[in-house]
Hints:
CATH architecture of the largest domain: 3-Layer(aba) Sandwich
CATH topology of the largest domain: Oxidized Rhodanese, domain 1
Helix content: 25-40%
Oligomer: single chain
Structural class: alpha/beta
Low-confidence stretches: none
CATH class of the largest domain: Alpha Beta
Radius of gyration: 18 Å
Strand content: 5-15%
CATH superfamily of the largest domain: Rhodanese-like domain
Order of helices and strands: EHEHEHEHEHEHEHEHEHEH
Largest sheet: 5 strands, parallel
Number of domains: 2
Mean pLDDT: 97
Shape: globular
Amino acid sequence: MAVPALTDPLVSPLWLLGVLGRPDVKLVDASWHMPAAKRDAKAEFAAKRIPGAVFFDIDGISDPDTDLPHMLPSPQGFANAVSALGIGSADTVVIYDSTGLFSAARAWWMFRVFSHDAVYVLDGGLPGWIAAGGELASGEPEAPTPAAFRAQYRADMVRSADDLKTNLETGAEQVLDARAAARFTGSVPEPRAGLRSGHIPGARNLPFNELLVSETQQMLEGEALRARYLAAGIDLSRPVVTSCGSGVTAAVLALGLHRLGVSDVALYDGSWTEWGGRNDLPLATGAAA
C-alpha cells in the first residue's frame, strides 16, 4: 500500500519514524549554507544524517549555463540527478536540513516545480529528529540504486526578472521578500559582493525566520502562521511571488503559504542576486511602501 497523501506539507519526526525504511519512502538531506558560513554540507551529511538519507546538492542540481547561484536545472537535468539518487516518480520524498527549516524548502519547491507532489519537509529538520530520539548514521553512505523519475516543468510556479518587471506595471501579483529587514530596507550591505542594497519596488517584507518557532525551528501553524502574512500586508486571496537573496528562503515563504492552503504562489528564482546585480532594474529602499 502506498503512503497516504497528506494535506500538510510538513511532517513530524514521529510520522517519519512510522514510515522510515519503507522502499517507497525516500529521505533527502538538502542542507545548504551561505558561502560566508564556510560550512561543508556534504561533509556534515557524511558525519551525521538520518539513516537511509541521500544528499541533495542544491548548488550541483542546478542550471550549469548561468552565473546565478543554484538556478533551476532543465527538467531532464533534474530527472537525471534525482534518478541517480534512487528516487522514482512513485516514491514519497521527505526532505530535511541540518539547520531545522531552511534549505529543505528549496528542494521541496524544486520537486513540486517538476510535478512531484508526494514531497514533504521534516518539521524541525535534523535537530528535531535528534530531539525526538531518532537514530543517526555516519560514514560514507552506499551508492543508491538508480530509479526512474519523470520531470514535467510547471512554469506557473516560477517567475523571471522580466515577469517581475512587467508586474511593476500591472501590480497583478504581490511580491514578498524573505530577507532580513535590514537587507530589505537597504540599511546594510548585501552579503554577496557586488549587489546593490534595497528591494524590488512595491515588495513586502516577511523575514523567513518569523514563520518559525525560534526554540525548535519548526514552522508555525494555523492562525499564528496566517497572522505573519497578514501583518506583512499580504492578501492571501491574491497571487503571491516570493523572493529572497538567491531563491532558497523564498521557498520557506512558499512552504508556509502552501501549509495555509494558498495555491496561487510562484517563486522568483533569480531573486535579489539577479535583481540587485543588474543596474537596469529599479530598486527601492526603506520600509515597504
